């Protein structure tokens, strides 16, 4: 349990500290130190799960198994390496007058809070808190996309906020439907949204309601994944935001959103006993691969190339998860 506290507590404290000191000369180094401690805590948590098995902690509010623990370690690793890269990058941007002291403070604080939301989404056992964490990630990243305050970056941030805001609203409705189905089996209360409880009774959940819930969850979180045709925000966010922001968007946000889809798919597969969720994921995954590859070949801007590369790769991952197999 101590590892979970450190994994979540370090970036949260880091975000609060850097909100006040993020514009000072040593802020970039401090950002790196917080990310390093988060990575160490993530590795320790992974070693414990590998050695002892799945962990339920804090009244079953947090659940760590062999599936999400490696995503936690990967998230912490990417956040650390990106923080290392962003130190000279942001100093150079400040030296050339592109970023003010206030913008640096905003970047460093939002960076740590974004990492906190990603780790919270991965570690929580509650599907409602998972939604809250994904929504919080939207609020933190939209400020980072618009960091330069140019007309193009502000437009990209608004596009990102509106499209992902609409998408996350669909995920909220899907979560409500999931609770509606679970309440009849598990009873009213917070336990009705605990994934471990839902997984234990997934065969008793109403199939029709679960099918409809998955459609909304897939569309909602699929917007965050960047699946075609819900990907329009991704190229602009990559192109107009700081380069370190592009790294964490592709390396963290898209992966965590797909994690939310896969957790939902496990429940739907158990309730329906059909390939409904698998076929839906395979269809959108294949479409994303084809469209992403076509647009990738036509790009000349490096950041936009990485964006469409992310669309293609997330399509491949979605297609692979849709093919099935134990998770």
Any key phrases for this structure?
single chain; 327 residues; mainly alpha; two-stranded antiparallel ribbon; 12 helices; 2 strands
What does this structure look like?
- The chain is mostly helical and 327 residues long.
- The protein is built from 12 helices and 2 strands, in the order ααββαααααααααα.
- The protein has helices at residues 2-21, 27-52, 68-95, 101-123, 127-145, 151-186, 195-200, 207-225, 233-240, 243-272, 276-296, 302-323; strands at 55-57, 62-64.
- The chain has a two-stranded antiparallel sheet with strand order 1-2.
- Helix 6 (151-186) crosses helix 9 and helix 9 (233-240) crosses helix 12.
- The protein is globular.
Q: Measured on Cα atoms, how large is the radius of gyration?
A: 19 Å
Give the overall form: globular
Through-space gap between termini: 23 Å
Question: Mean pLDDT, as a whole number?
Answer: 90
> How many DSSP helices?
12
Low-confidence stretches: none
Structural class based on helices, strands and sheet pairing: mainly alpha
Helix amount: over 70%
The tally of beta strands, per DSSP, is: 2
- Main beta sheet, described? 2 strands, antiparallel
């Amino acid at each position: 349990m101590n590892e979970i506290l450190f994994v979540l507590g370090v970036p949260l404290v880091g975000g609060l500290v850097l909100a006040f000191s993020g514009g000072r000369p040593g802020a970039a180094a401090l950002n790196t130190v917080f990310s390093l401690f988060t990575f160490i805590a993530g590795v320790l948590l992974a070693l414990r799960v590998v050695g002892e098995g799945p962990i339920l902690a804090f009244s079953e509010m947090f659940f760590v198994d062999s599936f999400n623990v490696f995503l936690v370690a990967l998230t912490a690793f990417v956040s650390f390496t990106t923080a290392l890269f962003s130190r000279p990058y942001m100093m150079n941007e400040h030296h050339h007058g592109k970023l003010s002291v206030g913008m640096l403070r905003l970047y460093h604080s939002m960076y740590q809070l974004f990492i906190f939301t990603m780790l919270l989404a991965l570690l929580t056992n509650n599907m409602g808190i998972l939604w809250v964490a994904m929504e919080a990630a939207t609020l933190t990243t939209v400020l980072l996309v618009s960091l330069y305050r140019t007309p193009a970056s502000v437009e990209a941030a608004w596009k990102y906020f509106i499209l992902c805001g609409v998408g996350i609203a669909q995920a909220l409705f899907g979560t409500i439907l999931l609770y509606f189905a679970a309440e009849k089996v598990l009873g009213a209360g917070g336990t009705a949204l605990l994934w471990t409880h839902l997984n234990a009774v997934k065969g008793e959940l109403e199939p029709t309601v679960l099918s409809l819930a998955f459609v909304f969850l897939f569309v909602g979180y699929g917007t965050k994944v960047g699946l075609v045709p819900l990907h329009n925000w991704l190229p602009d966010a990559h192109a107009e935001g700081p380069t370190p922001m592009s790294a964490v968007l592709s390396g963290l946000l898209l992966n965590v959103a797909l994690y939310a889809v896969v957790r939902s798919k496990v429940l739907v597969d158990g309730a329906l006993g059909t390939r409904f969720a698998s076929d839906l994921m395979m269809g959108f995954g294949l479409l994303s691969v084809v469209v992403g590859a076509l647009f990738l070949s036509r790009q000349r801007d490096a950041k936009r190339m990485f964006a469409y590369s992310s669309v293609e790769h997330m399509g491949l991952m979605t297609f692979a998860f849709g093919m099935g197999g134990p998770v």
